[in-house]
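Q: Could you fold this chain for me?
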Amino acid sequence: MLEAGETLRITVASDQLVVFGDGMESDRLTASWGQEITVRLGERPLRLVV
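A: Sure. Below is the predicted structure, expressed as structure tokens.
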């Protein structure tokens, strides 16, 4: 769990890593070996409308 102001950095150490920010497959991010992903809280909460 991240608190406000905290950052999580992930360095990819595999051929492919798929990242979902909101669980929607259509807007996924695919990263590969050596790329770095930085995760932090947004300024406002996400609101999904179904």
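A (continued): The two ends are 25 Å apart (CA to CA).
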